[in-house]
Amino acid sequence: MTHRKFAQHEIEEALGQLNASAQKAWLIEDEKLTRTFKFKDFQHAFGFMSMCAIYAEKKDHHPEWFNVYSTVKIQLTTHDVSGISHKDFDLAKQMEAFASRV
User: Fold this and answer.
1) Residue 83 DSSP code
2) Which pTM value belongs to this model?
3) 69: left (phi > 0), else alpha (psi -120 to 50), else beta?
4) What is the average pLDDT value for the chain, to the nearest integer?
5) CA 52/CA 22 separation, integer angstroms
6) Matching PANTHER family, A to Z (predicted)?
7) In the chain, where the domains are located
8) Which ranges of the chain have pLDDT less than 70?
9) Cβ within 8 Å of residue 12, ≥6 positions away
10) Which CATH superfamily includes the segment(s) 28-101?
């Protein structure tokens, strides 16, 4: 599937759909799809990151992330289109599903 950079109205629409199930936790920061997850402890945060890493590798779409103890900040962008694409929203949806499991 060919992917392309989303136009601003497409980002807003997809962000609205994503946040309908994610309690408005995702936002656009530094021109990247961004969310900070908080977990019970480091073990849960690392478990979440491990699930995300395996999925991201299969999809060949890798997050920018930062972890301190129970907090994981994630930023998503599609580097080969220099912006946000469907790949970022697909990964964000999967991350939501993983976060609900840990």
Assistant:
1) B
2) 0.92
3) left
4) 94
5) 17
6) PTERIN-4-ALPHA-CARBINOLAMINE DEHYDRATASE
7) 28-101
8) 1-2, 22
9) none
10) Transcriptional coactivator/pterin dehydratase (3.30.1360.20)
